[in-house]
Every structure is written in structure tokens, then in C-alpha cells.
Design goal:
Layout: H1 9-26, E1 53-65, E2 73-84, H2 96-99
Length: 101
């Protein structure tokens, strides 16, 4: 394919690039397909989401002067948390201790 391209060297390459862009600008874009609406889950009153339990939380704020611009402060806020998320209760699954008498 490189043998049958018009023009040689850098200017030939540049001419091809301009031609590609010129053709792209003149071409009308195709219509995009309409996005499909995502199915909405029905609200289940028995499955109310419980917020996770926070076991540990530490918040830190660090401030420093900007090294090149006086009067500006750099501020970093860090929040460390350890949480325990409770799995949803599924009555179809039973624990092994309940199966044996």
C-alpha cells in the first residue's frame, strides 16, 4: 500500500493528512442509535439496605504553605475508615449448625 500513495516525503504525508481531515469534515455523521432505558428494579420493602457499621474512623487535615506562591495554602483531608458490611439475609440458605440435630 505504501507504494501507491501520492506524493513523497514529508509534504506528501502532510497532504494525505489534510485530505483525510478534509474528507472527514465534509462527511455527514451517521445517526447514533437511541440509548435504551435501563430496567429499574422494583423496590422490595423487605430488603431495606442497612448502612455498614463503622469500626474505626480517623480524620486528618494537613495544611502547608505553597512553595512558590505566598498566601496560598495547600490542604489535604484524609479519612481512614474500617467498616463491616452486613451481608443481606437470605432465608433460602441455612447454616450447617441448623441442619444437624
Amino acid at each position: 500500500m505504501a507504494d501507491n500513495l501520492p506524493g513523497e516525503g514529508v509534504f506528501g504525508w502532510l497532504g494525505r493528512q489534510v485530505g483525510y481531515v478534509k474528507k472527514a469534515v465534509k462527511t455527514k455523521p451517521r445517526a447514533l442509535p437511541k440509548p435504551k432505558a435501563a430496567p429499574r428494579p422494583s423496590p422490595d420493602p423487605s430488603a431495606s439496605p442497612e448502612p455498614p457499621t463503622v469500626v474505626y474512623r480517623e480524620g486528618r487535615v494537613e495544611e502547608a504553605e505553597h512553595p512558590t506562591q505566598p498566601g496560598l495554602k495547600l490542604r489535604r483531608t484524609v479519612i481512614d475508615e474500617v467498616i463491616v458490611a452486613k451481608p443481606p439475609h437470605d432465608p433460602s440458605h441455612t447454616s450447617p449448625s441448623q441442619d444437624q440435630p
